[in-house]
Structures are given as C-alpha cells and as structure tokens.
Amino acid sequence: MELVGLFITSFIVNNIIFMQFLGTCPFLGVSKKIDTAAGMGIAVIFVITLASIITYIIHYAILVTLELEYLQTIVFILIIAALVQFVEMFLKKSAPGLYKALGIFLPLITTNCAVLGVAINNIIYEYTFVESLVYSVGISSGFLLAIVLFAGVRDKVDYADLPESLKGSAISLITAGLMSVAFLGFSGLQL
Amino acid sequence: MNKLKIFKNGVTTENPILVQQVGMCATLAITTSLMNGIGMGVAVIAVLTGSNIVISALRKFIPDEVRIPAFIIVIAAFTTIIDLLMHAYTFELYKALGVFIPLIVVNCIILARAEAFASKNSVMDSIIDGLGMGVGYLVAMILLSSAREILGNGTILGLRILPEAYEPMMMAIQPPGAFILLGLLIGIVNYLSRRKKA
What we know:
The structure holds two protein chains of two kinds. Chain A is an all-alpha fold.
C-alpha cells in the first residue's frame, strides 16, 4: 500500500515537470506533435528506470564501500551517458522497429536532467531498492503524462490568434503554467 | 572577433535563457527568491568559465570522436568542485538549491558553449565567452527571481518593499508562477527586440 502511495505521489502529486521542473528542455522541445511526444515519453521511462537501477547498485556497492560518495555526480553522468549509448546500440541490433521509433530521442536523453535528477533523488531520499524502482517508474510515467497532455494542448494553441511577441516558446511556457495550476490541485493529497 | 563583442553576445544577443532558451530546468525551479537566483547564477558562471578554460586549453589534444564524453567529464569535475565549496561555505544556499547544484552538469548551456565556442577558440576568448554567457544567465535569473519574490512575498532579498497590506500572490512562488512569469518575460524580450528592429 505504501508503494502504491509512493507511485501516485511521484506520478501526479509531485509531477516531475509541473511540480519539480526536471526535464523541462525536452518537454518544451519535443512536444510539437502528440506521437513524437509519446515516443519521447516512452524512451524516457525506459532510460530512467534502467539508469536508476544501475546507479543505485553502483552507488551502494562501489561508492559507499570505497567512501567515494563525493564522486557521485561524475560517476552518475558517465553511467548515464554510457547507458544511453549502449541502449541505442542494443536496440539498433536487436529491435530495429523499436529503434526506429525511439532512435532519434535516445541521444537527447543524456542531457535530460530528469535522468540524473531521479538517480540523485533516489540516493538523497534514502529509498530502498524497491522504493527507488517504484519512484523511477512513477516519475517517468508522470513525464509521459505531462508531455502527451502538453502536446495535445499545443496543437490547439498553434491555431490561436496570438500577439506576435508571444508566439513560440513564450506562449508554450504560459500554457505549461496554466496546466501546472491544475496539477497544483493535487498537492496535499495524502494516500 | 573583438573581446567586447564576444561578451555582449552572451549577455544580450544570444542570452542563454531569454533568447536561446536552454537550461530552463534550474531557472524555473530555484528562482523562488532573489538570493537563490543570484547563488545559482554565480555557480553557473564559475562552472561555465572554468570548463571553457580547460576545454579550450585542451582543444588540440582531445580527439574529435570522444570529445563529448571528455567535455562532460571536465564539466562534471567543475560542478563537483562548486558543489563541495558551496557545501562548505554557503550551507544555507546549498540546502535551498539542493539537487540543482549537481544538475549543473546537464545544464545544456555549458555543454553547448564547450561544443560551439571553447573547442574552436583561444583560451582568452573562451574565458570572455564563458563570463558573457554566465552574466547573461545571471541577469535572466535576477529578473525572474526578483519578480517572483516581489509578487509572491512582497520582499526583495528578505527586505520588505511592498506594504504589509499587500496580499502576497502565492502563485508567483509556486510552480505555475515560474512558468507564467518566464513566459511573460520572454514575451517582453521578444517585443523589445522586434521594436528595436522595426
């Protein structure tokens, strides 16, 4: 039950985009069409979950035992960069269909601060292994939800009659702000 | 390119937040008070200038194929230094900025300058570019965070400037306020630059 609560909290209440602002760059960059947004969202779920598992194991098995916690940032970013590269090569060889669908998004994910952010948060919040797994899946599903909803809204905004200066990213940010108001309604939800 | 032009390029023409719109995560998240905004801006200036110096000094030795991982290691090293320094000397600020200090590593602006400028130009020019871009980032942080602190709290740097009777607009320091105010700020910048052109 506690794990369900953790999932809901990380999925909606503390939504990664609207409440924590992690991963805002791809959120604003890759949300012009619903299907590319969904592709990005799925790639992010895949990478965040995998990266959390690996960084968690490496942190406790290697960094803590050798008392090298201060190297956390360097080690984590290298793991993530290598992981993304590896996933890309693996998919290219073994699942060309999936690679075609996710391919272009994968390199972008290395600089997605959500991946590093979740890996670091797992350690800061002192989650157990299972909790960190639930947290990563919840957070990354929240990213998928946010980016797909946002792409849908943006589709409509494109046809709106706007002042010239607000076109482009200005109106996107304001739209995201209004959606964030809706997510604010969930805050304080206790499970 | 002359030095002044490089500096001005970073602050105004290609301001990282207001014009290029990269590295938004930290900008949106930690601008709840002016102090946080300044702290983050200074941390970014330090990392950006440091990594620009090292990368431009090493630009002839780093093989082209592995340049991105090499850049990331240099940036991560500087971020770790700043992280440890802030932990030691400015603990309050360190706690307020939290996870966003290690996340400077993945701030797109730093890798973008390494790739687009420092790996092609001399050390001196790269220092100026790092300072220019960093100051541009700091200026945007100051604008956004002071707007949020004044509207959301009626204070600036903790000093009350709006009368007690002013009812703080809570939304400004909550997440939606960050998105909406940054959107409006970019809108204003677009408006001014269009007027200047016309």
